[in-house]
Amino acid sequence: MAYQETVYSVADRIATITLKRPDKLNAWTAVMDQEVRAAMQQADGDPDVRVIILTGAGRGFCAGADMSLLGAIAQQGVGGYRDGQSFLRNTSNGERADVRADFQKKYSYFPALSKPVIAAVNGPAVGLGFILTLYCDMRFASADARFGTAFAKRGLIAEYGLAWMLPRLIGPANAFDMLFSARLVDAQDALRIGLVNRVFPQETFLADVYDYARDLANNVSPRSLGVIKRQVYNAMFQTLSEAFESAEEEMLKSLQSEDFKEGVAHFVEKRAPVFTGK
């Protein structure tokens, strides 16, 4: 696929998807929507990729939906604007039988990917841009990052499952604060409430994120990563007993895997691991 508003690259077993509208703070468009989905699927299907990073070009991560789109919808209505329905609805081609329906919605498909997805939030992540970070598995922020919902100040609501996802990450009280006030939360405040995993200096931000991603790509079993990711997201819908029984089944499979044998061997032999994902 030829990418116009994103950049897709692979190096050191890491796929990087960069939103590329820096003059608009990478405001989200229908084209970007399609390209990010295609890039995510490409990375997930590439055996040479073990970690996915989503970031933004320039000084912003994503400023939310492009205002020209919102303005057109406000003037013409959702039905009257040609991109109105695609803005709201899922654009995927068909459903996967092996994935929960919850993780096949318009932006909730990130958890269905078999590889870790890291949001490298280099600047403002607002509105829809903020939602994108929530569906990533981890969020690393630069010291210049800012997070905000914006919806209540636009006469909108908690979109795309935000009311379900955000309280699970930061608790209901903090979620209400961000949703009601639509205020911007800085990187340190985001770290305090558990919205981001780490904050790195702006000067070394991407280098620090890639150091973490390379450690996952080179020193951790990709098979384990995929299974653990599926376990954590499925557990959101399970009882403890169900999660326990599922873990027992996965443990038996793991004990028979090549990566388990390599995990023991490299530790005993005191050498770097050579995991195959099998």
Question: How would you sum up this structure, described in words?
Answer:
The structure is a single chain. Helix 9 runs antiparallel to helix 10 (240-255). This protein is 44% helix and 14% strand. It is globular, with a radius of gyration of 19 Å. Strands 1-2-3-4-6-9 form a 6-stranded mixed β-sheet, sandwiched between helices. Strands 5-7-8 form a 3-stranded mixed β-sheet. With 278 residues, the chain is of the alpha/beta class. Helix 1 (30-45) links the parallel strand 2 and strand 3. It has 2 domains: 6-217, Alpha-Beta Complex (2-enoyl-CoA Hydratase, Chain A, domain 1); 220-269, no CATH class.
List the helices and strands and how they pair.
Layout: E1 6-11, E2 14-19, H1 30-45, E3 51-56, H2 67-76, H3 84-88, E4 117-121, E5 124-126, H4 128-135, E6 138-142, E7 146-148, H5 162-170, H6 172-181, E8 185-186, H7 187-192, E9 198-200, H8 205-219, H9 222-235, H10 240-255, H11 258-269
Parallel strand pairs: 2-3, 3-4, 4-6, 5-7, 6-9
Antiparallel strand pairs: 1-2, 7-8
How large, in whole angstroms, is the Cα Rg? 19 Å
What helical percentage do the residues reach? 40-55%
Give the N-terminus to C-terminus distance in angstroms.
29 Å
Q: Based on the coordinates given, report the CATH architecture of the largest domain.
A: Alpha-Beta Complex
Mean pLDDT across the residues is 91
Given as residue ranges, the uncertain stretches (5+ residues, pLDDT < 50) are none
**What's the CATH topology label of the largest domain?**
2-enoyl-CoA Hydratase, Chain A, domain 1
* Whole-number total of structural domains: 2
Total E-strand runs: 9
Outline the biggest β-sheet: 6 strands, mixed
Strand order of the largest sheet: 1-2-3-4-6-9
In CATH's first tier, which class of the largest domain applies?
Alpha Beta
Overall morphology: globular
CATH superfamily of the largest domain: 2-enoyl-CoA Hydratase, Chain A, domain 1
Number of helices: 11
Task: Report strand %.
Answer: 5-15%
